[in-house]
Each structure stands twice: as C-alpha cells, then as structure tokens.
Known about the structure:
Elements: E1 2-5, E2 8-11, E3 15-19, E4 22-27, E5 37-44, E6 52-62, E7 75-88
Antiparallel strand pairs: 1-2, 1-5, 3-4, 4-7, 5-6, 6-7
Amino acid sequence: VAFVREGVVQAAPAAFFFRDGRYWIGAGADGPQPGDAVSLVIDDGRYYNELRGFRVQGRIAAAGETPQGAPHAPEWFEVIPDKAVAWHYGRMRQRPQ
C-alpha cells in the first residue's frame, strides 16, 4: 500500500481483505494511519492476457474491529474510497472496424 504522510509518499506491505463492499488493510506501525491518503493496488497475473487488478484511492479510517474471517494483522484499517479502477487485459478486445 502507498500512502502520504506529512507530504511524503511512503509504501509498506499490508494484508488485504474485502468483505461486504468494504476494503480492509492490515498493517503495522510503519503502515498508513487514520487520515492518511492511500492508494491500494492489488494485481495478479504473469503473462499479458492474465494481467488483472484494481486500484482504490481514498483515505484510511480506523476500523475499530477485525473483519470476520480476515487473516492475522497487527492492526486493521478501512480504506474509504474516493476512486476505484479495475482492469483485466485478457478481456479487453479490439474494437471492430
């Protein structure tokens, strides 16, 4: 996850969990904190036609709870999205002439 704190862009590893339309990240003390602007990128695939992913931009909020079924993480936060973008190169088609 990439985030901005005090005007400086930083990055930290984070656990990711999606449930009930909510984006959760689990991070340690070196990760984002409530109020930080964040860009969360999740991607997968090895070859061009397999490449897919999404990016959520927004702000971090204190979760106050661990999402049910989520893996262990030092602390869980929720990403409050302002913008979300998804892609899947294998499903993109050339437009007929």
